[in-house]
Amino acid sequence: MPELIYIKLFILLGIVILLVIIARYISKSKQKKLATILDKAFSEKWRGLLNKEVRFYRQLSEQDKKQFEKRILLFFATKKIEGVDVDIDDNIKLMVAASSIIPMFAFPEFNYPNVRQVLIYPDSFDEKFQTKRYKGHKEFISGMVGNRFMNGTVILSKPDLIAGFDGSRHQHNVGIHEFVHLIDETDGIIDGVPKQLIENSYVGSWLHEIKAEMHRIEKGKSDINPYAITNNAEFLAVVSEYFFDNPEKFKRKHKELYAYLSKIFHQDL
Ligand SMILES: [Zn+2]
Q: From CA 189, how far away is CA 194, in angstroms rounded?
């Protein structure tokens, strides 16, 4: 009988080795495929569009632009971007990818493990995902990150996405807003404290800073979008829009907040 056990063990070992070989083969061919995609020359047309529409990209050094382009290719290769009842062109896709890269530009390895697809809606939508306007309805959403049944999905309204990249310096960019929620989510919870980006010893003073600024907003003593006082998560997303859209003004008006965000995102704009 002991021989039978040996035979079984031998077969089991064989199966394990075979599975390891298959897994390594799949992972290698995936890496190879990705390397081929990233090696591709970046389209001149796309480069022109980025230069025209995305100020963050325009202000980068030549070397950093190359890095930005590689991350665009990686985003395109790993995430689906689809229009729902609306046509989307390369420009829209580039704006989506740019929104995701800008806040995490200092972290070249980061590529949103929690995102599978981005859906572009023809307009802002209500809580039932309807874009139709009807009388008496006031609340419309310009972007959203999916939870539970919509996990891995980001929804962005096309006109609102475009408005974030209209070239003027403001503090609204729905693309950046939603991707900051997703960065916040990578520690498991969207709570305004992205734990992988903020040192433990800083969490307390960051929460204190949020509270103090919310107080100023409530009293009408701040130019930050009042939507920020909804909760800590919205606060982080709203001030990040301002930080990336209009860094000079944000730094001038909110020196301490600027320092916190600069520390969180590892960027001094
Ligand atoms: Zn939000």
A: 8
Ligand 1 midpoint to CA 107 (Å): 22
Whether residue 181 contacts residue 145, with contact meaning beta carbons closer than 8 Å, is answered with: yes
Distance from the alpha carbon of residue 177 to the mean position of ligand 1, in angstroms:
6
Q: Ligand 1 centroid to 72 CA: how many Å?
A: 23
Please report where in the chains the tokens 């829209």 appear, as a residue. 92
pLDDT in single tens digits along all 269 residues of the chain: 667 888 888 889 989 999 988 888 888 887 777 777 777 778 999 999 999 999 999 999 999 999 999 999 999 999 999 999 999 999 999 999 999 999 999 999 999 999 999 999 998 887 777 777 766 666 788 888 877 667 899 999 999 999 999 888 888 999 999 999 999 999 999 999 999 999 888 999 999 999 999 999 999 999 999 999 999 999 999 999 999 999 999 999 999 999 999 999 999 98
CA of 96 to the centre of ligand 1 (A): 16
Per-residue CA distances from 51 to 46, 76, 179, 244 (Å): 9, 18, 21, 16
Its pTM stands at 0.86
Q: How far is the CA of 13 from the centre of ligand 1 (A)?
A: 50
For ligand 1, the distance from its centroid to the CA atom of residue 237, given in whole angstroms, is: 6
